[in-house]
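Sanity check

After download, print the first record. It should look like this:
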Amino acid sequence: MYRLSARAIREEFCKKKITAKQIAEKTLERISLYDKKIGTFLSVMEERVMLKASALDRKRNSGKPLGALAGVPVSIKDNIHIQGEKTTCASKFLENYKAVFDATVVRLLEEADALIIGKTNLDEFAMGSSTENSAYQLTKNPWNLKCTPGGSSGGSAASVAARFCPISLGTDTGGSIRQPAAFCGIVGFKPTYGRVSRYGLVAFASSLDQIGPLTYDVKDAALCMQVISRYCSHDSTSIKSPVENYLKKLDQPIHGQTVGVPYSCLSELDTGSKEHFLEAIEVFKKLGVTIVDVDLNLLKYAIAVYYILATAEASTNLARFDGIRFGKRAKDAKTLEEIYVLSRQEGFGAEVKKRILLGTYVLSSGYQDAYCKKAQKVRTLLIKMFQQAFAKCSMIAMPTSPLTSFPLGKFQDPVQLYLQDIFTVSANLAGLPAISVPNGFSEENLPYGLQLIGPYMHDTEVLRFGFAFESVTPFTNLVPPLFDNNVNK
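Expected structure tokens:
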């Protein structure tokens, strides 16, 4: 079953070839067998998923209509609420916090009869690019256990790559779905900002955060989007727009379309990444696509803009973690000030403290004009830059990351790690839909990713271009040898 897509699992279940209980048991068995090697899950909800599976079997046997994800195992990044379950955000601050309501995406998944199996590891409060900032455990790349799965949705990406589940929900603030998808050889989709509700997501940077799917292939990503991209009255940024039929338009050819490539921005790439990216462009040419050069030179400012605005918003959002309302409270605190200071000192990790301090600094009196307002102005210029580029092309192609997955512990300089997001943060700053699809392997057998960015609200088109590329390349739906039962036998 671990080789089946979400669509195939649903079909097997609906045709009564397998029960939901059997699906849940096989999934839990595989997690028990392999997850000690990877460190994907912070919690596995065995009792909950078995109860849901039994209820789903009864629903099917009674002849009631089944949801779009009936019987499909799904994992959830542990900064998204599931009522009654822990939401730790991989932080000691929330190690005992249980969510009091469901996130909108969780409610929609369960209404679609998905089987939610557990919460996945992440960089603490989604702040990181390697999942090394978790307060609880390291997550490893299923293709090479010495390497990072990427971040901050590294646990979600690894859970799909290791074939624990065909769909996982991650969050993308500056590339945190697409980069781990590229590192783990799977598909990662960041929707248009506001297309998927953020209600029930623990906020990092509210103007940048977006929930999206990580999957085996593009069709499963489209299927998941059919379920979760609905208007939500609880989220003021949710787009009040009808749900698109993402699956229906996937098969439409892209012959005659135009793809823009920012050739001047490719100097940051290592040799292997550049070669694979240029080979991907040749694939599009064979599909009848015209390639044009587009000017995205403002991307060189994207990292600076992102880390000013993201940390400023993080320092505001994380002010709610004060040791009083919920989460960790320092036992030795005797005064109100000590409760604030000691609770945060004991509860937050080094990376989170660093970003709170930076965010507080750029928001402080005397520095707001010099940093935040200037960054907002450059953000506006970035949005206009993309609008001008899309006047020349239907889609923009870039690498997902300048490197393939790197060894755990490689980057000790945080700035060097931040620079790995150079190709992804701009889509968040502009609120655009973007996808990463597998694009070959390095000599060390580590995956590369190709990124496609589309105009605002053209999510369906982004998926269509990703599907067209995927359909003529052999890199999708591959199982890492360490976790392939056929190889192990």
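If your output differs, re-run the checksum step. Summary of this record's structure: DSSP finds 16 helices and eleven strands in the chain.
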